[in-house]
Amino acid sequence: MAEFTPQPSCADDVDHNNLTVEQARQRIHDLLSPISSWQKVSLRQALGQVLHQSVVSPRQVPPYNNSAMDGYALRSADIKNTPFSLNNVGVAFAGKPYQGHVEAGQCIRIMTGAKIPDGCDTVVMQEQVESDNQTITIHTEVKAGQNVRLAGEDIDCGDTVLPAGRRLTPADLGLLASLGIAEVVTYRPLRVAFFSTGDELCGLGEHLGDGQIYDSNRYTLYGMLSELNIDVIDMGVIPDNRAALKIALEQAAADADVILSSGGVSVGDADYVKDMLAELGQVNFWKIAMRPGRPLAFGQIGEAMFFGLPGNPVSVMVTFYQFVQPALKRLAGESDTLPIIIEVPCDNAIKKRAGRFEFQRGILFRNNEGQLRVSTTGAQGSGILRSMSMANCFILLEENCDGLSAGSLVNVQPFAGLV
Length: 419
Ligand code: AMP
Ligand code: MG
Prior knowledge:
Number of helices: 8
Oligomer: single chain
Strand order of the largest sheet: 7-4-6-5-9-8
Bound molecules: adenosine monophosphate, magnesium ion
Shape: elongated
Number of strands: 26
Largest sheet: 6 strands, mixed
Radius of gyration: 31 Å
Strand content: 25-35%
């Protein structure tokens, strides 16, 4: 990672030294590969973790031919033009199979999920049958094999049911349980150390002095990391001085797979941060053609990957969702790292200058006619964290877009409740 680009500046919007969002994302993706550690975990522990090994089914689902209906099981060889009658010789419940062999001219009463008895291959639903307990008469046309769920119909023995790289969902846990699988092999959860930088920052519970603000970035970072099932190491606020920063970075590099810092990467206070990173590792400072969140530091310190995020609270969240989240997913072994993007009409006009990709904060909602719409959250300053709190999606505005009229179609990337 030898490449260094000039320090970010806030010059004009159209700057050809800028990386595009896609270029930056691609470079990060290309430099990362999944961690090598894995572990065997029980099913409940595996929720939200990423499969290291594919899961191959050791059995068939369903395990035996069974009835899809409450009704009567019969032999297809006995099907005749309706009406026709059969002798009712027994009953099968789910979990209590009929033990005998059903012979020609016979049938049994059968419940949903019960095993189809030997000799039978077809089920007639009870509503289509007249019965006096001894004999049943069928009035509706019957097709051979109807209303039977065949063994292995859903999953066959040896089928790959879940591929490596899959982050396990509640449905996956149920699926694995249905196959009798109690343990799976997953990637070890990532360890991420993070800290805020800035002499103006004050921790919660501390007295807010003159010229100070509370540190909010560590809380948004904590929340976004928690959504990814990560082991977090919160290193607190690091003051703006070389020695403290050096200790923090060395400590973080020793403890974590990934280090995240916020603040101190823009013009002004960036210089010593940059020196320190150059001394301890290989870190690139990128200017990305985006708003908010233009400067981003990315590289390696020791064995750990490092992301230096901007300080502004909205920029932190935008750069996290656009670059850090997909990077963490990749490191964690997940194969599906692409965000969900949908196209919807925007209720309000949007002002924008061509030049940078903008991530405006949006609210995705259903209007009175039940149609999906988006609106912006209002003022879009990169320090207005309330805009993120109100939002449930980003409105994605391409570099060359120079504003939109109300009703235009826009791409949105939902973030609330989706990872
Ligand atoms: P910086 O990138 O360090 O110049 O910070 C840019 C802006 O973000 C400044 O107004 C900082 O006070 C603010 N800021 C930086 N870090 C934090 C933080 N952890 N919580 C809240 N605001 C922050
Ligand atoms: Mg600062």
